[in-house]
Amino acid sequence: MTSARITIVGSANLDLVATAEKLPVAGETVTGATFAQHPGGKGANQALAARRLGADVSMIARTGEGPNRDAALALLKADGVDLSGIVSDPEQQTGVALIAVDKAGENHIVVASGANACLSPGDVNIEGKPDAVLCQLEIPTACVLAAMRANSGLFAVNLAPAGPVPVELLETADLLIVNEGEAAFYGDGIHRGGGLVALTLGGQGAVLYRAGKEIARVPAFTVPVIDTTGAGDTFCGALVLALAEGREEGEALRFASAASALTVTKPGAQPSLPWREDVDAFLEDQD
């Protein structure tokens, strides 16, 4: 089978991760943490997820220069993502995410967008005719709209982090992906168009809607939780890939949920992203 061609337009960050017994509340200092540094950013995470799951992936993004750029792009480069669409900006810092993780795998994340916020519609040069384009909201909305207008295949948007977007985006996208908080933020607006809406429910699984009507639902898989960072991004990359491959909607949702479940069993965002054979073997064990 020919690999699906997917273009990701989104963010690339360097994740600085502190893992502690518990997450701090406002004004509290938590000590005794361990530190790790990983590549991250929703766009880069989703690009690597789709690549490891079998897609031919190109990424469009903007970074700074220097060692943080190299570290942020290291796994994308190693695993064969096409990075020719990533602009190096000498005036900006590569985006950084400050992540705190507790012993249950829950996290707090603060993102310093850096060069991601400077991506421009002129940078969004989608070459050829990819089977799908996937965007998120860690880049300017104008870039997401440029990607939507330039694309002729499946156009998907992960509406994260939640924020105001043009009605045109909600009505035109072929696939919108949200978690519970994002779904609450957008309300019925996510069901205004005729496309698909995927809603992730954490421990309750995931649901797929079309025009406001449920068409598929899968329960969550039971796995040991080490770190939930990157699970949502894996779900996005996996779902878009499965749909681009022509899978039936319910089957695509189950595949994405399985890939997401495997992600939480390892620490870090990109280092934890599963390979296609891992997901296929996991699903076989569930049958």
TrEMBL record:
<keyword id="KW-0119">Carbohydrate metabolism</keyword>
<dbReference type="InterPro" id="IPR029056">
    <property type="entry name" value="Ribokinase-like"/>
</dbReference>
<dbReference type="InterPro" id="IPR002139">
    <property type="entry name" value="Ribo/fructo_kinase"/>
</dbReference>
<protein>
    <recommendedName>
        <fullName>Ribokinase</fullName>
        <ecNumber>2.7.1.15</ecNumber>
    </recommendedName>
</protein>
<feature type="binding site">
    <location>
        <position position="227"/>
    </location>
    <ligand>
        <name>K(+)</name>
    </ligand>
</feature>
<keyword id="KW-0963">Cytoplasm</keyword>
<feature type="domain" description="Carbohydrate kinase PfkB">
    <location>
        <begin position="5"/>
        <end position="275"/>
    </location>
</feature>
<feature type="binding site">
    <location>
        <position position="266"/>
    </location>
    <ligand>
        <name>K(+)</name>
    </ligand>
</feature>
<dbReference type="Pfam" id="PF00294">
    <property type="entry name" value="PfkB"/>
</dbReference>
<dbReference type="InterPro" id="IPR011877">
    <property type="entry name" value="Ribokinase"/>
</dbReference>
<comment type="similarity">
    <text>Belongs to the carbohydrate kinase pfkB family.</text>
</comment>
<feature type="binding site">
    <location>
        <position position="138"/>
    </location>
    <ligand>
        <name>substrate</name>
    </ligand>
</feature>
<keyword id="KW-0418">Kinase</keyword>
<dbReference type="GO" id="GO:0019303">
    <property type="term" value="P:D-ribose catabolic process"/>
</dbReference>
<comment type="similarity">
    <text>Belongs to the carbohydrate kinase PfkB family. Ribokinase subfamily.</text>
</comment>
<keyword id="KW-0479">Metal-binding</keyword>
<dbReference type="InterPro" id="IPR002173">
    <property type="entry name" value="Carboh/pur_kinase_PfkB_CS"/>
</dbReference>
<dbReference type="GO" id="GO:0005829">
    <property type="term" value="C:cytosol"/>
</dbReference>
<keyword id="KW-0547">Nucleotide-binding</keyword>
<comment type="subunit">
    <text>Homodimer.</text>
</comment>
<keyword id="KW-0460">Magnesium</keyword>
<feature type="binding site">
    <location>
        <begin position="232"/>
        <end position="233"/>
    </location>
    <ligand>
        <name>ATP</name>
    </ligand>
</feature>
<feature type="binding site">
    <location>
        <begin position="13"/>
        <end position="15"/>
    </location>
    <ligand>
        <name>substrate</name>
    </ligand>
</feature>
<feature type="active site" description="Proton acceptor">
    <location>
        <position position="233"/>
    </location>
</feature>
<feature type="binding site">
    <location>
        <position position="272"/>
    </location>
    <ligand>
        <name>K(+)</name>
    </ligand>
</feature>
<feature type="binding site">
    <location>
        <position position="263"/>
    </location>
    <ligand>
        <name>K(+)</name>
    </ligand>
</feature>
<dbReference type="GO" id="GO:0005524">
    <property type="term" value="F:ATP binding"/>
</dbReference>
<feature type="binding site">
    <location>
        <position position="229"/>
    </location>
    <ligand>
        <name>K(+)</name>
    </ligand>
</feature>
<feature type="binding site">
    <location>
        <position position="233"/>
    </location>
    <ligand>
        <name>substrate</name>
    </ligand>
</feature>
<comment type="pathway">
    <text>Carbohydrate metabolism; D-ribose degradation; D-ribose 5-phosphate from beta-D-ribopyranose: step 2/2.</text>
</comment>
<feature type="binding site">
    <location>
        <begin position="200"/>
        <end position="205"/>
    </location>
    <ligand>
        <name>ATP</name>
    </ligand>
</feature>
<dbReference type="InterPro" id="IPR011611">
    <property type="entry name" value="PfkB_dom"/>
</dbReference>
<dbReference type="GO" id="GO:0004747">
    <property type="term" value="F:ribokinase activity"/>
</dbReference>
<keyword id="KW-0630">Potassium</keyword>
<dbReference type="GO" id="GO:0046872">
    <property type="term" value="F:metal ion binding"/>
</dbReference>
<keyword id="KW-0808">Transferase</keyword>
<feature type="binding site">
    <location>
        <position position="268"/>
    </location>
    <ligand>
        <name>K(+)</name>
    </ligand>
</feature>
<feature type="binding site">
    <location>
        <begin position="41"/>
        <end position="45"/>
    </location>
    <ligand>
        <name>substrate</name>
    </ligand>
</feature>
<feature type="binding site">
    <location>
        <position position="179"/>
    </location>
    <ligand>
        <name>ATP</name>
    </ligand>
</feature>
<keyword id="KW-0067">ATP-binding</keyword>
<comment type="function">
    <text>Catalyzes the phosphorylation of ribose at O-5 in a reaction requiring ATP and magnesium. The resulting D-ribose-5-phosphate can then be used either for sythesis of nucleotides, histidine, and tryptophan, or as a component of the pentose phosphate pathway.</text>
</comment>
